[in-house]
Design goal:
The chain contains eight helices and 13 strands. It is of the alpha/beta class.
């Protein structure tokens, strides 16, 4: 396949603090890997809110360390959805989110909520039923909106349109909302007819991934990627095609969403990896 052309300070807290998955910050800053591959300087910096029940924060960090290392951009990580605020974003030029909008206060047996194995892993009623609640507040949604409106870049990756179901402020800047997906299956990703620097010259490529079917709120002219199940498989009554990416200016800032990303094999698919690099550069006005 042809690949197209190529006191403790808040930051110290993000980098050094580790609390349990119940909501504290985790010590996931790029750290040693970043010091080897990324020069720390006065250039742009990124922060990523990552990890949920179905998307392990570790594979996301491994993938993004490679991505931002090649771009020579420092990136910090947090799983602290409950601590996320306007203060979190100070000093950063790029926000990336790869997580959904749910938390599970009563616990759960494992990440696979759909299989026969989980249902029979323990005795009935020996573990509380997994009941999700939404974590995002309108204040947190406004923090994202205001960050982008003031000139920041927002890379909404894979499943974070789910957060739109909890916050109108977030949905306004995100540009759409989660509306379901089938189990992982092969589908093709291709550029739309709307020309954009992120997708210029790309060739269609296949992934084995969750084909999300988001509700898209903005002008169709901003859609840059579409997905299609070439085997003719549909999802509910939504057909074989879905919106797979968009990019637009928002206030003084920019927003990009690309849908694939449920596993590292997808995130590192060569053409998609290049699209992610271009998306970051476009968000930072380097492209």
């Amino acid at each position: 396949m042809k690949i197209f052309a190529k006191g403790m300070s808040r930051r110290a807290l993000v980098q050094a603090t580790g609390l349990a998955a119940g909501g504290g910050l985790i010590g996931m800053a790029a750290g040693a890997a970043q010091s080897q591959s990324v020069r720390r300087g006065a250039g742009p910096r990124a922060i990523a809110l990552v990890g949920d029940r179905y998307h392990n924060a570790d594979y996301i960090r491994v993938s993004l360390d490679k991505l931002f290392g090649e771009l020579n951009i420092p990136i910090d990580y947090t799983i602290a959805y409950d601590k996320f605020s306007a203060e979190t974003l100070k000093g950063y030029q790029l926000l990336l989110i790869l997580r959904d909008g749910m938390i599970w206060p009563a616990g759960y047996l494992g990440p696979d909520a759909y299989g026969h194995y989980e249902a029979n892993l323990e005795e009935p009623k020996a573990f509380p039923a997994p009941v999700p609640v939404m974590w995002a507040t309108e204040e947190q949604g406004a923090a994202v909106r205001d960050f982008v409106n003031a000139g920041g870049g927002f890379y909404a990756l894979h499943n974070c349109a789910h957060i739109s179901l909890a916050s109108k402020n977030y949905r306004d800047v995100m540009g759409g909302a989660y509306d379901g997906h089938p189990p992982q299956r092969p589908f093709r990703v291709q550029a739309t007819a709307n020309r954009h620097p992120i997708t210029e010259g790309m060739q269609p490529f296949m992934v084995n991934d969750e084909q999300h079917y988001p509700i898209y709120d903005k002008d169709p002219k901003y859609q840059i990627l579409e997905a299609e199940n070439v085997d003719g498989l549909t999802y509910e009554n939504k057909g074989t095609k879905s919106v797979a990416g968009w990019a637009y200016d928002y206030g003084k800032g920019r927003v990009v969403h690309t849908m694939p990303g449920h596993n590292i094999h997808v995130l590192w698919q060569p053409q998609y990896f290049e699209i992610q690099k271009r998306a970051v550069r476009w968000l930072l006005r380097q492209l």
